[in-house]
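Human: I would love a firmer grasp of how sequence relates to backbone shape in proteins. Take your time, and here it is.
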Amino acid sequence: MAAMRARRLASIAVVACLGLGVLTGCQVESGKAAIIGGTSFTDDQVTEIYEGAQQASAAEPTPSASPGPAAAPLVSRQKVVDLLVSLELGRRIVEEKKFPAPEQATNPEEIAAALGAPPQSEYVKLWAAWLDVQNTIVEHTPRVGLTDEGIMQVYEALVRSNAIQGGMNITQVREAFGAAIFAEAATLVSTSLGAEVEKVDAEINPKYQPLGAPLAVNTQQGPVFYSLPYVSSDMVTDVSL
């Protein structure tokens, strides 16, 4: 069980990134948080997921993650919208490409503590579903290599989350990231999501912009959660499998 939990937490590091690079600020219907290809997410739905996690946490608190920058952040309405949109786009990709389902689905109980929310909350259940979707995309999509611009965008997102020191140049960042597998995988899914956005009508309520996808990377202190803006296809290079 411990090994399985470690594997699942490690997989959180391979979450995609999505922003508003191709999503325009538009007139969304009143009460709507986002509309993705005809699928609507309402403000009431967002609030229900958000408040449900808060109420459940108060009734049955989960063990907190390690203190410091790596501690799991509180759930917010913005994080709920980010998750709903990313999951919807990811599911469309999996269905269109007929990718097989994972052999074993992520158990919400294995990631709840890292997320700072109880396993029975809808927020954690959505996260578990998102992990399965993005891992499926990574497994069945050819690798990409990050350009300097692409890897610096990942670095800057980590700096904003206090996960790594600022002021580093590209040489230092590449040395710190090593093989940068986690960044490559995140960008791979990002470009897939970006391509999917171009196929569908996507509208985001201005109050939830800029949009970003849930992302995390493991550190010695525990997983660090952050939001990475959309990484366009010109920030990657094709590499052989």
Remarks:
- The chain is about 45% helix and 15% strand.
